Amino acid sequence: MTGYGEELGELVIGDCSAAAERTGRNIVYTRRCRGIGEKKLYLAGAERLVVKPIYPVLYPKHFTTYILIHLSPPIHIAPRAWTTVYIEVPVDIAVYAYTGRREEGGLEKLAAPLRAIGAAPETQWFSIIDVFPVDRVKYTLYGPPENGVLARHHVSRPMDEPGEARPGAAYARLVLRNRIDEWVTVTRVLYDSRRLRLGYRHGSWEAFLQETHMAITGRGAATISYGGHWARDLRLVPDPEHLRPGRIPVDTDMLWGV
Amino acid sequence: MGCLAVTTPEPQLSLGGILGHEVFPGITLVRLLGMIAIIAVGIPVAYIIRRIAYRTLARFLPKEAASAAARIIYYGLAAAVIVSAFGAAGVDLTGVVIAGGILGIILGFALQSITANLVSGLFIFWERPLKPGDIVEVEGVIGRVVDITIMSTIIMDFNGIRIRIPNAKVYDSVIKNYISTAARRLEFKVSIAYKEDAEKAYQVIKNVLDNHPLVLVEPEPDIFVSNLGDSGVDITVRCWAPTSEWYPALKDLLWRLKKALSDAGIEIPFPQSDIWFRSPLEVRLVSGEREESLHGGRE
After folding, report:
1. Is B251 on the interface with A (CB under 8 A)?
2. Confidence of residue B271 (pLDDT cuts 50, 70, 90)
3. pLDDT (average), residues B264-268
């Protein structure tokens, strides 16, 4: 295997190895990770297993949808100035099981014309059968315990260009705008994975998130809004149901410091 | 022969006469119609108010509580309509009101606890100090809230026993809600022997915390020597975990800390005492005698 989107045969990433073995009409999936343990599944009715990146909020359990990127070194922005940087956002490895059948209904109708240009949403029936991390997993609390939010924690340096592709990392373009009349130091960015659109280049370990905008509205407050994709030739990751955006898209407010 | 002429008065069929006619002693037709009109209009209005109250309250309260509150409002309004209607008809309700008042006092005393539970239930629904699914401690009972009805709160304790607590008690007692916040603190005490390197133990503990996915980066874990005990040096470890994962984190961390300290060769001491004898002890060992004593001989 050389990258995301390919059918799983044998894969070794970091401390983990995963393999799919076909036994007649069924597939036996095995994953071993040092320090995490082993998982073995016997899959009936699955046509193929595919490895894709996934938002890093499902391992070891899904209890938040937020990702907090700690910027090191921090970014100092002059009054009313703006800048664009690239940051690394962690992604976990997800194993998708496909049945080969397509969903019926509205989404498939919408997807059909877009499939020719590679921009169609996923309409095949799928299930995420396993998620495992590549890097060390840490969570943090953003805000006070009584009303703060839990978030997957990651440290990234701000970059002028996207970093080198590797499993476990996606790159987001971040546009920072200081809307107040004083210098601001930005040390962290909070993303809601329900609003993120994760894409990958088939057959490579390249993964990207869309352009995001951070509008600094006060000394310790900012709003994150989510734009479109800046990288080309991407295939979008099909979102699990609980990570799909709501009917009314909501920006992410950072009220407890930036 | 004289003629006796008897004249009967012509019946008066005027509207005023009909309306003024007494249907019941002291109640004219017009008053009776007025009473019927008040009831005919008042009861449907009370019903409409009940529906509005239900819809409004259902936004803040569970459906059962909203329904009960709306029903109370409806019966109160209906009673007011009926009293007004009888009053308009000229029926003296002073006796009924006094009797009703006395009955109310009697019922109030008799149903004191029921009323208290009912009102407390409404306040619990309103204030929401706990809700189904929460892990709470109420009245010394720790468990998961299964249901909150208008009269009582049902808690399933960790032994699988279903416990019903009247709402008045729940409302009056101290409620500890263990899962209402995003994160919760864990605290351990780890003891190491005096001969061990405390700096090394600190690094081992820190390493375990840093590599555990459920130990939060912020609030930052706190590791410090908290006591120089009788048997060893006590190190207190404080860290935060997601509230939903607090118990798994607690179990896993204690196990990992023990394993990491053992792997690093750090001794966790057990309580021990040094005994000093005032006079020196003499130990005599004679090879032959020892042989005998081992075989049950006399010392």
Report:
1. no
2. confident
3. 86
Residue B169 phi/psi, 5-degree rounding, is -70, -40
The DSSP secondary structure of chain A, one letter per residue, reads --STTSBPSEEEETTEEEEEEEETTEEEEEEEETTTEEEEEEEES--EEEEEEE-TTSSS-----EEEEEEEEEEEE-TT-EEEEEEEEE-EEEEEEEEEEEPPSHHHHHHHHHHTTT-PPP-EEEEEEEEE-SS---EEEES-TTT-EEEEEEEE--BSS-----TTEEEEEEEEEE-SSS-EEEEEEEEETTT---EE-TTSS-EEEEEEEEEEEETTEEEEEE----SSS-EEPPPPGGGS--SS--PEEE-S--
CATH number of B183-263: 3.30.70.100
| pLDDT (average), residues A39-61 | 89
So what's the pLDDT on residue B297?
44
Name the residue in chain A with its Cα closest to that of B220. Answer: A140
Taking the CA of residue B190 and the nearest CA in chain A, the distance in Å comes to: 23
- Do A257 and A74 touch, CB atoms closer than 8 A? no
Which residues, 6 or more positions from B42, have their beta carbon under 8 angstroms from its beta carbon? B77, B78, B80, B81, B82, B84, B85
Over residues A155-175, the pLDDT tens digits come to 999 999 998 999 999 999 999
Looking at domain B129-177, does it have CATH number 2.30.29.30? no
The confidence band for A110, taking pLDDT boundaries of 50, 70 and 90, is: low
ipTM of predicted assembly, 2 dp: 0.83
Are the Cβ atoms of B242 and A64 closer than 8 angstroms? yes
- b/e per residue B140-172 (b: at least 16 CB within 10 A): ebebbbeebebbbbbbeeeeeeeeebbbbebbe
pTM of the model: 0.72
Q: Do A138 and B217 touch (CB under 8 A)?
A: yes
Q: What does the domain layout of chain B look like in residue ranges?
A: 23-110, 129-177, 183-263
pLDDT score, position A44: 86
Residue A126 pLDDT: 80
Count CA atoms closer than 13 A to A49's CA, side-chain side.
Answer: 27
Give me the CATH topology for the region B23-110: Helix Hairpins (1.10.287)
User: Rounded CA gap, A256 and A223, in Å?
Assistant: 11
Query: Hey, is the C-beta of B183 within 8 angstroms of any chain A C-beta?
Result: yes
